[in-house]
Write a structure and sequence with these properties.
Blueprint: E1 7-11, H1 16-27, E2 31-36, E3 46-50, E4 66-69, H2 82-105, E5 114-120, E6 131-132, H3 142-155, E7 163-169, E8 171-173, H4 178-188, E9 204-206, H5 207-219, E10 225-229, H6 237-247, H7 258-265, H8 270-273, E11 277-278, H9 281-285, H10 295-303
Parallel strand pairs: 1-2, 1-4, 2-3, 4-5, 5-7, 6-11, 7-10, 8-9
Length: 306
């Protein structure tokens, strides 16, 4: 259980989720240390330190009560070349390995109590209509293997008596960035349409609920291991398309053929075309409450003023 005045280390603090998380931590009285490639803060309560995106360094973890590791090269930040896919992997797997090694270098009594590490629902692979809670077998493919290795590196911290939460995050809905900001442009122009046949399940979560889930993971000592960070409402891509078009008061255009998505995105196409009916079983069992449990409310909150 985190308390007021605790010192937390946050990586990926300048990203979409990290920025909102730092605000939430400061609002409840925590002191925050962030790792950035350019160490600039200027905010009361925030200490910024420089890192290379992989190695946090010797001093970054000293005096820290908990770590939230969100760092990672954006999946949809460019063409899926071999070098870029390697950066995607290194920024997640290698950085987590090095972070745990740095924790191991600390005296036992000085180690953080908790590590909340990002993961992704891509770990389940393509699963059709199967209900995917945290206990099902893992999938195959580039993203599934990436997430499996990512979580394996984080889990090594348990050997150091650190409680580890691997948050398997769905598509984050937020007006100011991520997938929703990308989708809003064609839909606003009346050019949005479903991807492929539209029957694939689309696991999602509102940004505010994701931040709340991270805080929940920090605060609840009974939570450990993989946690599905998604909303409880399961929707298909076609449902998303219709709801987004309605919220933006735009028509639904022609579907985007699956082959076109694969041609453009290569190994990352599965993030948009593969079906994953992910359910947040462990969050629900622990009593977590969503502010935006259904898609309509989440999209209205972010885009209803457009």
């Amino acid at each position: 259980m985190q308390s007021e005045g605790d010192q937390l280390l946050v990586t990926g603090a300048t990203g979409l989720v990290g920025r909102r998380l730092v605000d939430a931590l400061l609002a409840r009285g925590s002191r925050v240390r962030v790792l950035s490639r350019s160490a600039r803060s200027g905010r009361p309560g925030v200490e910024a330190r420089t890192w290379d995106g992989v190695d946090p360094g010797e001093e970054a973890l000293r005096g820290v009560n908990a770590v939230v590791h969100l760092s990672g090269e954006p999946l949809f930040g460019g063409l899926p070349t071999a070098s870029r896919l390697e950066r995607v992997r290194a920024s997640r797997v290698d950085s987590t390995r090095r972070l745990v090694e740095r924790i191991a270098e600390l005296p036992a009594e000085a180690r953080p109590r908790c590590l909340v590490c990002a993961s992704a629902v891509g770990i389940y692979g393509a699963r059709g209509d199967e209900r995917l809670d945290e206990d099902v077998a893992l999938g195959t493919g580039f993203l599934a293997e990436l997430c499996r290795d990512w979580e394996r590196e984080a889990a090594r911290a348990r050997e150091l008596s650190v409680r580890v939460v691997s948050l398997r995050i769905g598509v984050v809905l937020a007006r100011d960035g991520g997938a929703l900001a990308l989708m809003r442009v064609p839909f606003s122009l009346g050019l949005g349409g479903r991807l492929g046949d539209g029957r694939q399940y689309f696991p999602w979560i509102h940004l505010d609920d994701l931040v709340a889930a991270i805080l929940f993971g920090l605060d609840h000592d009974q939570l450990e291991g993989p946690i599905n960070g998604v909303a409880p409402e399961a929707v298909r891509n076609a449902d998303l398309t219709r709801t987004l078009a309605r919220v933006l008061h735009r028509p639904v255009f022609l579907p985007v053929p699956a082959f076109a998505v694969r041609a453009l995105m290569g190994e990352l196409a599965g993030e948009l075309l593969e079906s994953r009916r992910v359910v947040p079983a462990r969050l629900e069992a622990a009593g977590f409450r969503w502010s935006y449990p259904v898609l309509d409310a989440a999209l209205e909150a972010e885009l209803g003023r457009d």
